[in-house]
Amino acid sequence: MSLNYKNHSEKLDLIKKGEISLADNVRYFLKKIEDNKHLNCYNFVFEDAAEKADLIEEKIKNGTVGKLAGMVVAVKDVLAIEGKALTCSSKILGNFESLYTSTSVQKLINEDAIIIGKTNCDEFAMGSSNENSAFGPVLNPHDNKRVPGGSSGGSAAAVAAGLCDVSLGTDTGGSIRQPAAFCGVFGLKPTYGRVSRYGLTAFASSFDSVGPFANDVEDIAKVMNIISGKDENDSTSADIPVPDFLSGINENKKFRIGIAKEFFGEGLDAEIKKVIELKIEELKSAGHKIVEIEFPHNEYTIATYYVLTTAEASSNLARYDGARYGYRSKESGSLINMYNNSRSEAFGDEVKRRIMLGTYVLSAGYYDAYYRKAQKVRRIIKNDFDKAFEKVDIILTPTTPDCAFKLGEKTNDPLSMYLEDIYTTSANLAGIPGISIPVGKNSEGLPIGMQLLANQFEEEKLLQLSKQI
Ligand code: GLN
C-alpha cells in the first residue's frame, strides 16, 4: 500500500468509499517508521496506534466522527501526553511520564486524530539542526548527510518522509519554520497566544508557540481550526474568535505584499535569493501589489532574541534539579552537590550554555545593560512591524539564509548556528504569525523555503496566500 491521497479530506473520502482501511493505513505508517529508523525521527512510537482505527472507521461510516477523523499525527517530544514518556530529548527528565495531556494534543484526540508517536528534537527545543538531542541527530530525508533543521527536526522530517499525515512542533525563534524549509514541507507558527501552551514544556514562555507541519496547506488550516482558541489552563492564550481557516482558504484575494531589503542582504544564499525573487515576480503578475518596506532594526533581532530567551530559559529550567523528578546523580553528597551533579551530568552543552548566558544577563550588575535593554529593543522591533502592517497585509522573506547544511558543519560554531534564525526570530519577538512554504529546490536538490508573515491573529491571510502560491 502506498499513500494515494494528498490531504486529509481526500483520505477521508477514500475511507468512506471503502478504498482504504484506516487500520491498514496506520499499520502502513508503523511499518514505514520502522523501515526509516535510520532517519531517527521518532523518540517513541505508539505501537498500539492501530487499535483505535476500527472504532474511528466505524464512526466515519455512521457519520459521528470528529473533524480530524483518522488523521495520523506525530507530536514533538516537548508536549505532554498522559501516561507517555516526556523527555524534551534531554537526559535530565530520566523516565518521567506525563500526568496530563497538553491542550493542543487533547483537542486533536477529541476530534479523532490518531497520535502515532513523539518526535525527536533539539534538547528543550534549543537548536537549529536537531543535533542537540540525547537521542542523536535526525537525518534530512532529502539528503541523509544533512540536518533536517531544528529544533522541531523530527516533526518536519517525519512529514517530509511520509511517516505521518501531520505533525505538531513548537516555535520559539524559528523551530517550526526553519525545519519546514530544510525538509520541504509547510510549517506554521501561529500568533503568540493563538494556541494554548498548557502541557508544553517551557523554554522561553513569552516566545513559545505550538503549530503544525504538513505536506498540504489545507491540512495546516484544518489542524489550526482545532488547536486554536482560549484555554482556561493558559492565561496567555487569547480570547479572540477563531475564523474557519479551511473555508476561507480558497478565497482568491489580492494582497499588499511587503518586501524589505534587510531580508535579502549579505549572507543570503544566491540560489535561494533567485528562487524567491522569481516568486515575487509571479505574485506581481498574479495581481498582488508589491510594496517596499523598511525593517531598520533587523540587525538587532538575533542579539535581542538570545538575551531574552536565555534569560527566560535559565529561570524555566531551574526546576530540573534532580530532587523532584527525572534524573538524579549517583554522586550526590550534600543537597547543593546533588543539584550540581545532576544538572552537570544530564544537561547537554547547548542547554548549559544558555542557562549560563541567561543567568548572566539577569544578574544584578548586568540586568539593566542586557535584559532590560533587550526588552526595549523587543518593543522597537514590534513597532517596526506595526508600522509595516499599516502599509501591507503580508511580509515576504526567505525562511533561512541557506539550505540544509551538513551534519556537524556548524556544531563548533554557535554563532553561525544562531544566524540560521536571522529571518525567523523577529516574528517571535513581535508575537506575530509566520509560515514557511516550500517553493523549489536548489541545484543540489535541497528544498528552499519562503516565509510569509502577517499581523497578530491574521493567520488566515497567510493560509490564503500560501494556497494561491
Ligand atoms: N533555533 C532557535 C534556537 O536555537 C529557535 C529555537 C526554537 O524556536 N525553539 O533558539
Protein model, in words:
This protein has 469 residues and is of the alpha/beta class. The chain has a single domain, classed as Amidase signature (AS) domain (Amidase signature (AS) enzymes). It is 36% helix and 13% strand. It contains 15 helices and 11 strands. It has an 11-stranded mixed β-sheet, sandwiched between helices. Helix 8 links the parallel strand 7 and strand 8. Helix 7 runs antiparallel to helix 15 and helix 9 packs across helix 12. The radius of gyration is 21 Å and the shape is globular. It starts with 7 loop residues before the first helix and ends with a helix. Glutamine binds next to strand 4. Glutamine (GLN) binds next to strand 4.
Summarize the entry for a quick read:
36% of the residues lie in helices and 13% in strands. It has 469 residues and is α/β, with parallel strands linked by helices.
What CATH first level would be assigned?
Answer: Alpha Beta
| Bound heterogens, unique | glutamine
CATH architecture: Alpha-Beta Complex
Morphology = globular
Structural class: alpha/beta
Portion of residues in helices? Answer: 25-40%
- Count of DSSP helices? 15
Distance between the termini: 30 Å
Oligomer: single chain
Beta-strand share of residues = 5-15%
Domain module count = 1
Average of the residue pLDDT scores:
96
Query: Could you spell the SSE succession in H and E letters?
Result: HHEHEHEHEHEEHEHEHHHHEHHEEH
